[in-house]
Amino acid sequence: MRKIKIKKSPGSKPVIPTNQYSWIIGNGTSRKDKDIKQLMDYGIMYGCNWFFKKEFRPHVNISSDEPLTKSIYKLFPDFSRRNWLYTWYPKPGSGAKKCTTPEKMAAGVMASHLAIDIHESKKLFLIGMDFFGKGSTGTEKNGELNNLYANEKHYQKVKQGEKGVAPTYRNWQRRFQWMLKTYPNVDFYHVDPFEGKSPERLIGAPNWHQITWSNLIEHLEKDVELVDTKNTGETEGKLYLETNIDDERACYERQVAGQENIIMTDRIHPDDVIKIRLQAAKLFRKNPNQEVQVTLNKLQVNVAPFIVTDPKSGNSFIPSDKQIVENWILECKQRFPTHQPNIPKVSDDNVSTTTLAPPPPPPGMEGLAPPPPPSGEAPSKMFEGLAPPPPPA
């Protein structure tokens, strides 16, 4: 295979050619001891998060979370001026660019979308993209942590002698499933997948493949044909095509956390969102580390703790109810400009015990009948008395 040439003038960023192979480099242990730097000669390399710091500078680096991105600006102020850095949090004047996904996603997904959307790649190779932990039995019990950067700044900390827990892969899976369906003419190659597995809702896609590392290197050096090693049947094909219930759960979680839903529409009435946040804040003040869930349409939905950091002292705390309501009002003005929020009465730290009347339907939902309540399952006590969520658009 012919090697590519990357043009770069002194003091400028490299010119990224289009329609090339794309190397999406995850930070899972399946790529340990692989000489991935040699791939730079044959395509565009996309590194994730601390890749440029721990390994070498790829053609493009993607940073997913805000704290890590801020650390890059602080510790490596010239990096994004001289190299391509894409993030959901570009800082004006830094040289960083905003990722192209419609919503904030994980770094590997944003890198893949960037390769397709901006650099017009038709073949993406996922290397070190370890959806699973060691001994994974499913999305919620994903086994032992196997990230190369464990204990690095902004990564999971694991005490000596202990084993970290791998995070759920349900959001990674559903995001790649969305991309596979959105771009059916783009081929995704899962290279030497960890323990030989790809996620159950991805492997049945016609444009998802599994290949070995040795096959890939021979393909690049000797033009050997790529050989798909996946073994699938009718069951895997159905799983790929059917609606993923994790999309609905994530839609609820994003809205409760204050993240805008674009790929899917909001499903909770905005006046009910503030009730969930206020009730959850009470629990988090007692124990910030506890797990808080609500039951929505028979789905257990996680509620993330609301943490605020004092810029002067650096101390983190749960904001007061008054602050939570004020932020929610601003959010309503931005996202629902025609909606008049039913503002709960709060003191600095306590929610009024007054029962609120059912709120009006959100904009565009007037006159529509609410969906029937779930049958055979009682709602969470935390969600009792709330108006039913509006039907999806």
How would you describe this structure to a colleague?
The chain has 393 residues and is α/β, with parallel strands linked by helices. The chain folds into 2 domains: 21-241, no CATH class; 245-383, no CATH class. 27% of the residues lie in helices and 12% in strands. The protein contains 10 helices and 12 strands. It has helices at residues 51-54, 66-75, 79-82, 107-117, 170-182, 213-222, 234-241, 245-257, 270-286, 321-335; strands at residues 21-25, 44-48, 60-63, 84-87, 97-98, 123-127, 187-191, 208-211, 292-296, 299-303, 308-309, 316-317. The strands form 3 sheets. An 8-stranded parallel beta sheet has the order 5-4-3-2-1-6-7-8. Strands 9-10 form a two-stranded antiparallel ribbon. A two-stranded antiparallel sheet has the order 11-12. It is globular and about 70 Å long. The chain starts with 20 loop residues before the first strand and ends in a 58-residue tail after the last helix.
